[in-house]
Specification:
By secondary structure, this protein is α+β, with helices and mostly antiparallel strands. The protein folds into three domains: 1-189 and 342-372, 2-Layer Sandwich (Uridine Diphospho-n-acetylenolpyruvylglucosamine Reductase, domain 3), CATH 3.30.465.10; 192-254, 2-Layer Sandwich (Alpha-Beta Plaits), CATH 3.30.70.260; 271-335, 2-Layer Sandwich (Alpha-Beta Plaits). The protein has helices at 3-7, 31-40, 114-119, 127-130, 133-136, 165-169, 204-210, 235-249, 282-286, 308-320, 332-335, 347-357, and strands at residues 8-10, 16-17, 20-21, 24-26, 46-49, 66-69, 76-80, 85-89, 102-103, 137-143, 149-153, 178-185, 187-188, 192-199, 217-221, 226-233, 252-254, 271-276, 292-295, 300-305, 324-329. The relative contact order is 0.13.
């Protein structure tokens, strides 16, 4: 029996990405096993799959021979509480990282895994206070296309070939190799949290920034006209800040988040767009014809589009405001006629990085910017 026979199984009807069926599926249980798998399957094109919560993001792969399922690459490798650091395997669900008195401040959809969150650079509402994936990721272990293992950051003093692997792999959509372990910066777990909910007004984000309330998140939903601010900390401190915000915004204090909090605004199978604009442009974006939902504190928001015309209008509006818009997901008939990424500076550099890390273009071919 060959190594491929030992490590893979035939794909079934559910083993497809963007409508492209795979031939084989592998579920490695360790970095070493993943390394042996990739060394034994040279010449096969690969897509990595975690929980599948964002598997429909991005274009479909041009070809797909092998799906690497990370569900058995799961669990906490180490928790250095005194250093506020944890090392976790890529297939670990975010919801499963429950550490005593400490918090990994990454918000993701139900079931989302660590590897998928890093690969798509997904950061939720609390990005305002704690930072995004690139800020919290301090170390990474990956398996390259040739099966070699590379580590950088965290407790590893020496980086690899001069590259900041963590930043390169974050948001790469699985096009550079297989992430197997991640080291993250932790924060003390807040003892108390409250929400202040109010009507969204154009001046509200600036008024919140001018107040000494240190919000963990400031989210808006322009469809409902609501704004919600998350405050975290000690009970007395949170209550004091909540009262101040309640008066400032003429809002209400609640222990519950609104139903739309952290939820994408598009329906299953719909067109989902990520929009990034400067903070000063958020009120104008929210006042436009396309409802948006997301962070008024970071300028990263999301929108549902009904078709190509709405996508182009939203993208043009975002560019005019000094930002950009990326189509995250769309049904096949729309996806095939859309420029999902829009104009991207530095594309030639991205191509050179791809050629360096994956010279045979076997990892997620065509899934990233410019067909990378």
């Amino acid at each position: 029996m060959t190594a491929i026979d030992e490590l893979t199984r035939p794909a079934n009807d559910d083993d497809a990405v963007g409508g492209v069926p795979a031939r084989l599926v592998a579920t490695p249980r360790s970095t070493a096993e993943a390394s042996a798998l990739l060394a034994a399957t040279r010449g096969l094109t690969v897509v990595v799959r975690g929980a599948g919560t964002k598997l429909d993001w991005g274009p479909p792969p041009r070809t797909l021979d092998l799906i690497i399922d990370t569900r058995h690459l799961s669990g906490i490798v180490e928790h250095a509480a005194g250093d506020l650091i944890t090392i976790v395997r890529a297939g670990t669900p975010l919801a499963g990282i429950d550490l005593p008195d400490q918090l990994l401040a990454l918000d993701g959809p139900a079931g989302a895994t660590v590897g998928g969150t890093v690969a798509t650079a997904t950061s939720g509402p609390r990005r305002l206070h704690y930072g995004g994936v690139r800020d919290l990721l301090i170390g990474i272990t990956v398996v390259r296309a040739d099966g070699k293992i590379a580590k950088a950051g965290g407790k590893v003093v020496k980086n690899v070939a001069g590259y900041d692997l963590g930043k390169l792999y974050t948001g790469s959509y699985g096009t550079l190799g297989l992430i197997t372990e991640c080291a993250f910066r932790l924060h003390p777990r807040p003892r108390h949290a409250l929400f202040v909910r109010a009507a969204f007004t154009p001046d509200a984000p600036a008024r919140i920034r001018g107040a000494a309330v240190v919000p963990a998140a400031v989210e808006i939903d322009s469809a409902s006209g609501e704004l919600a601010v998350l405050l975290e900390g000690t009970a007395d401190g949170v209550h004091e800040r909540a009262v101040a915000l309640e008066k400032l915004l003429s809002g209400d204090i609640s222990e519950m988040s609104p139903s739309w909090w952290g939820v994408p605004p598009w329906p299953a199978g719909g067109i989902g767009v990520k929009v990034s604009v400067p903070l000063s442009a958020v009120p104008e974006l929210a006042a436009g014809p396309d409802p948006v939902r997301g962070s008024a504190g970071t300028g990263v928001l999301y929108a549902a589009a009904a078709g190509r015309t709405e996508v182009e209008r939203l993208r043009a509006r975002s560019v005019r405001l000094g930002g950009h818009a990326v189509v995250l997901t769309a049904p096949p008939d729309v996806r095939d006629i859309l420029d999902m990424w829009g104009p991207v500076p530095g594309l030639s550099l991205m191509r050179r990085v791809k050629d360096q890390f994956d010279p045979d273009h076997r990892f997620a071919p065509g899934r990233f910017v410019g067909g990378i």
